Amino acid sequence: MSDGSVTRDYDAAPQGRLMIDDAGRYALQIFSAERPNFAAGDKAGGTDAEMRAAVIGSSTHFGSLSVDWAAQTLRFAIEDSSFPNWRGQVQTRSFTLRDNVLSWQVPPRPDGTVPISVWRRDTSSTVSRP
What we know:
By secondary structure, the chain is mainly beta. About 5% of the residues lie in helices and about 40% in strands.
């Protein structure tokens, strides 16, 4: 925030995955760990508050990703998204990559806040490559 304070869109301990293949195809999912279960136990039977928490507490999109190393930017060509307004958009993000940590900034929101996504590489994979 402009005063230097930090807020979290997906609460203190979000869960997520960012997967990028060798061809630059990506899939990204972020979820608030504090999203409540639907009392009815039925996705279509959620209350307005449950539906709002489910939507606000998650972000997913997939498409193609390219890197401009000189400009330190990522280019997301979004094929589809949980936020329908992003469908078909191309979005560019300034990024940093240090060791196994990738982070990028989202453009400032109307209120002046600047969201930052931070991803840590999972080095525990047991999948072998041919």
